[in-house]
Every structure is written in C-alpha cells, then in structure tokens.
Hints:
By secondary structure, this protein is mainly α. It has six helices and four strands, in the order H-E-H-H-E-H-E-E-H-H. The protein has a two-stranded parallel ribbon. The protein is globular and about 40 Å long.
Amino acid sequence: MDSFFTRVYRVVRLVPYGRVTSYGAIARQVGAPGAARMVGWAMNASHSHHEPVPAHRVVNRNGMLTGKHHFGGSDLMQQLLESEGIEVEDDRVVQFNNLFWDPVTELRRGKSRGATRGKHKTPKQGGA
C-alpha cells in the first residue's frame, strides 16, 4: 500500500492548471477526512519528492494561502498561482468558489477537467 504522502501527491498532481483545491478535499479523497493538517505536512515535504508536485494549488478551505511560508520566497506561492491566471488578493484566491476543484466530485465523475497525467503544466518549485 502506498504511503499517505504518496497518495496525496498523486491526487495533487491531478489538480488542473488554473484551478485550486483544499487540504481537506485532498484528505477526503485519500480516505482520511480528518487529516487536512497531514496533507499540509505532505505539501511542505513535497519539495523533496522526485516528481514535481504542484503544491501551490492547495490552499485552505477559505482560499487562503496558508502554506505560502513554505515556499522559497514570501510571494512565490502567489506568483505561481498568478502565472496560471489565478488572481490572489491579500493572500486569498479571488473567485475561490469558481476555481475550486473537488477531487472527490471530479474524480468520481471520471473527469479532471482537462488534467491528465503529464499533460498539465507543473512548474518546479522549491517548497510546499
């Protein structure tokens, strides 16, 4: 059986370019609904994983960039999101509800709205 972090990374890699998800949504998808904080730990550790993990696409349930301090610079998470066309204001994703990608719903439908493994853009980042 895969480790918790490996299962988290597998789901995070499916988050489409230009969309965001939450720690809690990832936790629910991997079968650990109370483990949102552990998903955050996984995002923090993702810089050491051998395959890129688009951790910048994971925010808290209100769209706040709570993991931003784990990136190389204080604004790197915001810059990565903005490079994908996601507007961020005061450390919060603008239009969060419209950009939110729920893996439980999307993967159940058999869709990931254009995200296919290896076909979506995942910039290399230095941290969570």
